[in-house]
């Protein structure tokens, strides 16, 4: 089965073919760096990380660009509040963004261009639009003529006449048309600015991505992604700007992830129910955050609650404990003539095919996770056998690692050994095993903990543990 992607433009799943064989050019709209990213921002960060990982696992060379909007009204207001400069605000929250995505196991993009570092290209892009009569200046601002781009509205499937009716009269008298949008903003007194042919100012939001995508990836991208809320107006405006200038499609495939709700309510500042990733990583395992984000199809809404997080924690613990047990068993296994290995190989092959089929179906991560749990069940059953070969165990380890290369749910296991929560879970399991007189399992857990440098101590208050 070939990879198929749901294209927002066509509203259909389409077979994926990159513009250049073996290479993928992917642009995903990044954060406006005036604060810590919230979990709504984290969903595309994690999902498109998985898209990139999967494409690379199938042999593509991926050039992945995520921009930073480092000058904007929000940054200007934040700088005033903190009594610092706009670049200082941007630097603080770019550093925080990088720390947060590393904490949740996200690989850094190939490139993170900043608006302020690409001002010459942005101004030149606007000038070309002015020269070709797609844009006009009025009062130091420059606006895009939407009625000159006949396909305006094609991504979000909105009708120009209906859009016009929805616009309040007199929003900006300098606009020729109510739908026209700003490309360049004249600077207000005391604001950060750059010199341009239209006077001192700074770019509008939409033009930034068009200019940087063109500079770093060319006229046509393979994949352009972002949250559902960016379809209109942001991506619609990008299309109008870029395609007016180049005459080429801005992107072959448009991908948009769904919203996140908090306790079944829309996340919003007015409700005060936003949760930042900076807060979340202090109380949850990275794998739990990733699992939660991938547990629903990326185009579907996702609800954050204590219940859904508890479910994610239980699921992650089940996977981690299985893999811990598998590694321990492998560490003491020897090569044997195990007739079960070939049969296991066939069952594992079917699970791998199931995993790939689901990922090929528009990156269906919840069903791919189902395949992962089929592997967990197969592994647990295999580990119940009194004698297993090192070859069979290595096959299972390799399969877990191939899945994890894409989903990224086991970074702690590979890098840090057992986390405190993992140790606590194993001790609880050992106590239960002893109560049920499953001495073999109790001894197995004791040996595993010892191997990881965990010392158990019996006290009147119960079992305590420490690291050597």
TrEMBL record:
<keyword id="KW-0030">Aminoacyl-tRNA synthetase</keyword>
<keyword id="KW-0648">Protein biosynthesis</keyword>
<keyword id="KW-0862">Zinc</keyword>
<dbReference type="Pfam" id="PF23493">
    <property type="entry name" value="CysS_C"/>
</dbReference>
<comment type="subunit">
    <text>Monomer.</text>
</comment>
<dbReference type="InterPro" id="IPR015803">
    <property type="entry name" value="Cys-tRNA-ligase"/>
</dbReference>
<protein>
    <recommendedName>
        <fullName>Cysteine--tRNA ligase</fullName>
        <ecNumber>6.1.1.16</ecNumber>
    </recommendedName>
</protein>
<feature type="binding site">
    <location>
        <position position="29"/>
    </location>
    <ligand>
        <name>Zn(2+)</name>
    </ligand>
</feature>
<dbReference type="InterPro" id="IPR024909">
    <property type="entry name" value="Cys-tRNA/MSH_ligase"/>
</dbReference>
<keyword id="KW-0436">Ligase</keyword>
<dbReference type="InterPro" id="IPR015273">
    <property type="entry name" value="Cys-tRNA-synt_Ia_DALR"/>
</dbReference>
<dbReference type="InterPro" id="IPR014729">
    <property type="entry name" value="Rossmann-like_a/b/a_fold"/>
</dbReference>
<feature type="binding site">
    <location>
        <position position="238"/>
    </location>
    <ligand>
        <name>Zn(2+)</name>
    </ligand>
</feature>
<keyword id="KW-0067">ATP-binding</keyword>
<feature type="binding site">
    <location>
        <position position="209"/>
    </location>
    <ligand>
        <name>Zn(2+)</name>
    </ligand>
</feature>
<feature type="domain" description="Cysteinyl-tRNA synthetase class Ia DALR">
    <location>
        <begin position="354"/>
        <end position="418"/>
    </location>
</feature>
<keyword id="KW-0479">Metal-binding</keyword>
<dbReference type="InterPro" id="IPR009080">
    <property type="entry name" value="tRNAsynth_Ia_anticodon-bd"/>
</dbReference>
<comment type="similarity">
    <text>Belongs to the class-I aminoacyl-tRNA synthetase family.</text>
</comment>
<keyword id="KW-0547">Nucleotide-binding</keyword>
<dbReference type="GO" id="GO:0004817">
    <property type="term" value="F:cysteine-tRNA ligase activity"/>
</dbReference>
<dbReference type="InterPro" id="IPR032678">
    <property type="entry name" value="tRNA-synt_1_cat_dom"/>
</dbReference>
<keyword id="KW-0963">Cytoplasm</keyword>
<dbReference type="Pfam" id="PF09190">
    <property type="entry name" value="DALR_2"/>
</dbReference>
<dbReference type="InterPro" id="IPR056411">
    <property type="entry name" value="CysS_C"/>
</dbReference>
<feature type="binding site">
    <location>
        <position position="234"/>
    </location>
    <ligand>
        <name>Zn(2+)</name>
    </ligand>
</feature>
<feature type="binding site">
    <location>
        <position position="269"/>
    </location>
    <ligand>
        <name>ATP</name>
    </ligand>
</feature>
<feature type="short sequence motif" description="'KMSKS' region">
    <location>
        <begin position="266"/>
        <end position="270"/>
    </location>
</feature>
<dbReference type="Pfam" id="PF01406">
    <property type="entry name" value="tRNA-synt_1e"/>
</dbReference>
<feature type="short sequence motif" description="'HIGH' region">
    <location>
        <begin position="31"/>
        <end position="41"/>
    </location>
</feature>
């Amino acid at each position: 089965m070939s990879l198929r992607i749901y294209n927002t433009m066509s509203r259909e799943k389409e077979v994926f073919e990159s513009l250049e064989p073996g290479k993928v050019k992917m642009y995903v709209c990044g954060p406006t760096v005036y604060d810590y990213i919230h979990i709504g921002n984290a969903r595309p960060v994690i999902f498109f990380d998985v898209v990139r990982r999967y494409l690379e696992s199938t042999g593509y060379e991926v050039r992945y660009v995520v921009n930073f909007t480092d000058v904007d009204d929000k940054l200007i207001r934040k700088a005033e509040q903190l009594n610092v400069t706009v670049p200082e605000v941007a630097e603080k929250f770019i550093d925080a963004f990088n720390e947060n995505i590393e904490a949740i196991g996200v690989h850094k993009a190939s490139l993170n261009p900043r608006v302020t570092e690409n001002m010459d290209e942005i101004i030149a892009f606007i000038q070309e639009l002015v020269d070709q009569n797609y844009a006009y200046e009025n009062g130091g601002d420059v606006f895009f003529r939407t009625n000159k781009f006949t396909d305006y509205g094609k991504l979000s499937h909105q009708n120009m006449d209906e859009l016009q009716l929805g616009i309040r009269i007199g929003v900006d008298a300098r606009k020729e048309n109510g739908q026209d949008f700003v490309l360049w903003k004249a600077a207000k007194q005391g604001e950060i600015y750059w010199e341009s042919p239209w006077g001192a100012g700074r770019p509008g939001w939409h033009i930034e991505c068009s200019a940087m995508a063109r500079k770093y990836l060319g006229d046509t991208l393979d994949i352009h992604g972002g949250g559902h809320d960016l379809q209109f107006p942001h991506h619609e405006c990008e299309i109008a700007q870029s395609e007016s200038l180049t005459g080429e499609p801005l992107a072959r495939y448009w991908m948009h992830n769904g919203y996140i709700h908090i306790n079944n309510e829309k996340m919003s500042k007015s409700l005060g129910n936003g949760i930042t990733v900076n807060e979340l990583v202090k109380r949850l395992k990275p794998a739990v955050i990733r699992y939660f984000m991938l547990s629903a199809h990326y185009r579907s809404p996702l609800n954050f609650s204590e219940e859904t997080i508890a479910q994610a924690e239980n699921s992650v613990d089940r996977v981690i404990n299985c893999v811990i047990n598998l590694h321990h068993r492998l560490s003491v296994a020897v090569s044997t003539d195990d007739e079960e290995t070939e049969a296991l190989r066939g069952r594992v092959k079917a699970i791998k095919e199931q995993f790939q089929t689901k990922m090929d179906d528009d990156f269906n991560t919840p069903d791919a996770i189902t395949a992962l749990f089929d592997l967990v069940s197969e592994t647990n059953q295999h580990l119940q056998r009194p004698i297993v070969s090192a070859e069979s165990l290595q096959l299972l380890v390799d399969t877990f690692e191939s899945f994890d290369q894409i989903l990224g749910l086991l970074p702690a296991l590979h890098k840090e050994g057992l986390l405190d929560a993992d140790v606590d879970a194993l001790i609880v399991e050992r106590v239960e095993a002893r109560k049920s007189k499953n001495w073999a399992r109790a001894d197995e857990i004791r040996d595993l903990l010892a191997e990881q440098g965990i010392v158990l101590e019996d006290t009147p208050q119960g079992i305590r543990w420490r690291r050597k």
